[in-house]
Write a structure and sequence with these properties.
single chain, about 180 residues, RNA_pol_sigma70_r2, transcription regulation, RNA_pol_sigma-70_dom
């Protein structure tokens, strides 16, 4: 998500309490937020849920945006966290409902390979977050949000070398979790 200067200005004004700027900002960023959430979640309805959650988080927490980095960088973190939170919630609901419904496995002939691999990657990322939470943010910002290393270092307030090291280690951990089929 790279925004023009007008979007960045709206974010600064919204962070200073300008309600009209916040409303315009939310309208303007919604398509990009949805597209970004869809990178995480294979089902459109799930991506829409994550998008709405992310927009709500922006509205509630825009005052925390200090303007030291670009708004788009700050927003990447918000969207990634919302998408991962939505995924965890969906997974929890699925486990709860499994007790009520007969166990059904999806038919592999009707399951998208891409959707299936995204779910596998989300599971691997969730596992990594549980085991080594300091690695997950850098990985998400680089491999999902596709930010530059310098932007990640700025956002996480870490030295560039630490960011590169965390991303390398996170990728290694995710590869181990996924197994040979993803190398």
């Amino acid at each position: 998500m790279a925004f023009d200067e007008r979007t960045e200005e709206l974010a600064v004004k919204a962070a200073q309490g300008d309600q009209a700027a916040l409303n315009e900002l939310l309208r303007k960023i919604e398509p990009d937020v949805l597209r970004h959430a869809a990178r995480f979640l294979p089902c459109r309805q799930d991506a829409e849920e994550a998008c709405q959650d992310a927009l709500l988080q922006v509205a509630r927490n825009i005052h925390r945006f200090e303007g030291r980095s670009r708004f788009s960088t700050w927003l990447h973190v918000v969207v990634a966290n919302s998408a991962r939170s939505t995924y965890r919630s969906l997974k929890r609901r699925s486990v709860e409902q499994a007790g009520e419904l007969p166990q059904q496995r999806p038919d592999p002939r009707r399951t998208s390979v891409i959707a299936g691999s995204r779910v596998d990657i989300l599971d691997a990322m969730e596992d990594l977050e549980a085991r080594k939470p300091d690695l997950i943010q850098a990985l998400v910002l680089r491999d999902v949000s596709q930010l530059e290393y310098a932007e990640i270092a700025e956002q996480l307030k870490l030295p560039l070398g630490t960011v590169k090291s965390r991303i390398h280690e996170a990728r290694k951990q995710v590869r181990q979790t996924l197994g040979d089929s993803y190398t």
